[in-house]
């Protein structure tokens, strides 16, 4: 028995070792497998993914990168057939283009218990020009059906030696084995960052390499002479070698209230930090957040743009003439930029057409608008600095990389505080930023290039206050007055909604959003007073708010304002829950009951709390004669909950929904 | 070339209208309900020869707000055989002063591949302009020449909802002797002027007000004014065509695009023949061949030149085992032919919004191909060849109930696809529920779905467990603490019936008030959606597809609880359908709840809209209604 076990062990070790995924050598077991051993739901799986990156040097063309990839993909079901097409982005930078070559592929099936392979031909490979910056290669495999195993191999030659796409290890389908191998000459120093929930180990080692180069050399180092001679030489250097071997990476699934799924994907990013070529000065690209900020600050389309003032001086002088209060000056300049400039919907940390031109045209990208704002603030004597940001869709920049930031706003230091401004949107106000910006930390860069972290998520909760006075009628309808008030971030989105719809359409949508409601005397206050909460008032009437059972009337004390749905329905959750910003809702409701009825019972008062007081729901109801007074509040003190809060949050909502669904009972006198 | 320049010059003089593009000159009536006003929409189409059409257009749009940006239409789609000779845009401010000019070289050039297509040679030139204020006006001038006279631009006097038109002007003329056919729709209702002189026709209209979108209304296509034009002899990507009648047009498709594309190698023919060996029933043969296609191919769309209209050959599909709708349809047709079954390549406008081929107006059209198989003494069979899971003869809402073009060797014919009768879209739910004193309900549910209801659900079986759970939590979103136990599906592809077997439980389903329990007996099929209110409804009510739901629930009450009252029998009969509830206290502690809802498809008057909403409101209220359970 013991020997048998030993033997089995031995065999399995041997098997694992021997199975080195040679291109074109697919086992019968792989093809006949009908479901993924760890995720039986999976429609397809990446059995193996290998990427190899090496550098090449050519005297005429300089350095280039050769990337080789091998994918082995298993199709389990018909829904998985999409994975039989592989798409490879090919980047373009000016006249340099990445090129795909040596595309090879085989589809393996079992026919009559024999492995049959079908070769990928040229007509299954397409290269298409997408736009100025990118081409796309598509590889689609022949003869694919349920059970097929695909082997695909290709090579990309890239003159863009400074650029490497993220190496991804996790996909929407499981990945059984990945192998990544990079050899990078000593001249290039890359920063490596691994990210995701699933830890990836990067092995590093060093090896030597020499390449022979034939080159022409100018005899006169000043370059004035045109006499050159041909020379041969060898270049000896060492290479940093990086290796990843990982296995059994689970598939990546989207869930609601998730910031950006890419934040959780297992991947490694390689970013060029510095270059040190023989006989050339050392050039630092980026190393730390400080360095990243500094290098952005020093780039031509950032710092120097910030220093220009002459184009606006005249107009800004007019605006701040005679003003001494810094806060007032800031407000005036902010409103001026907001009304003067229209955002062209491009994000980026650097200017594209230049600030002057943007100012003249009245449109610009994020950097142009907010650097212009910062420059004007400074000109007016305020302590203003640009703040670099990574937007929500760009993901959380966990590691210092030059493309970690894709957006810039402006920060004004007042006492120990930094007040943030974003002039790209009409409805923003100091400290109130568009939701896309509310992503973790920003980096404030000072004039000397030094920098500091700034929290972008507002501390103060955004509030939604509902006041309602209503009368319950014996036919089950209600009528009354409502007043709803939105502050901060909620006011921003409400104002955006108002701007994007005409009043008639807005009213129709409002009426329909509560099922069916008649609205009259509608009024909006403070629509353009951005520093104040925006207030909506109206009179309303709505049918069917009561149930009649026997001769009793039942209704929810919050009527149509009750939340009847728990947003968290699933049993488990993997990723943190992100509400974008802290929120508070309050309801003050007065109801009068119809004549001839009395209150038989009211729901009980209740308080529901999240652990550590992170959230509180309060429900209070009192009655006096024919009047009912309800006051309800729910508040989160934070915007981001770790996933282990999920059960508590789900329970919190459950109790809240239950409480709000409870009924007042009226009986006939 | 010189000749062309001359023509263009001529046209541009013709276009020099003196119009004020300032916002203030827009009549008040055109601003109502509008996000944009088309100030001038002008196009001239000149047929120079069977294979040369020159199109010049000028479009001026005043955009009132962000939603109106989509009506600028400042783009040019093209492929290799088209030649864009002029492209320019001008931007005007509110006062009508020119503030910017965008030349052809400043337009962005980009691949125009839509989602789902792997590769195509069609491209698009488009401009990017960020408006600094609203309103602003864009003038867009375009001139191009194309050999593809199969597609003469269709003229729409109305571009969509929430856009009004100040002036619309369309001129078609031909310098060729080829006969021209015109199809004018809804022109009278919109007082559109038509001017016919020799080989030239001019259509013009002014002051068309913006339309508001209304739910459950006919598609814009059906009631808005349009002009369609076709040539009896045309050209398409290097191929000449003829089409005076659908018969002829179909013949052309058959002869030029299909013939010879059906060759298969002997090995494959042998293989399919062995598949159907010993099978006599043609339906069974079709099933076997269709399964073979579904198990061995997949959908990949590649559109190149004439390949946008001509299927790749059956032998090519056979080799790579993928193709687009044309290729896979042609492949299936070839396989069926090799086992002695005739089937016909059929062109259709696919999509859940029905769109018909016009029987009176043969012209190149459609966006999809599928297969028709006539059977003796029985209804036709239809095969959707791009799907790996659709059953034989299941059209679903994708291709049901519409006029399509069937292509046969003797020519084309317009036929109507299968129409699902209201009661064929059937869902039968049988369930047994147990309620306890704590307010919890558990139950086992069995749902059988057919017709379009099958169509909505049968893909659920291939979803992951988590997605299935999500589906039911969404489907029964009015039940708060819903937990799902067993989820089993049976997909009977032969009879096209989808069966769901479910176990559910819901904590706190009943709420208790003063020791009594409030209980809604309709646990698992509430139709709560009520169409939105439409003040001042303008257009007919369309119920595109009807359905029949039947529910039989047996409910075991908590121990020692009895209903105070039952829901009184309900029976609503309307022209839109009927609704019935019968509730019985069968025996001690057991309630029987039976429900039947029939919605009838059809076209109803605009006045009926409010009646239909009332019907829906009543249904929603009854479906939500509750009874009181008291302790004995």
Automatic annotation (TrEMBL), chain A:
Q: Give the highest taxon in the source lineage.
A: Bacteria
Which Pfam families does this entry report, sorted A to Z?
A: Transglut_core
- InterPro entries recorded: Transglutaminase-like
Q: Where is the Transglutaminase-like domain?
A: 317-393
Q: What is this protein called?
A: Transglutaminase
**Origin species:** Flagellimonas aquimarina
Q: Top-down, what is the taxonomic lineage of the species of origin?
A: Bacteria, Pseudomonadati, Bacteroidota, Flavobacteriia, Flavobacteriales
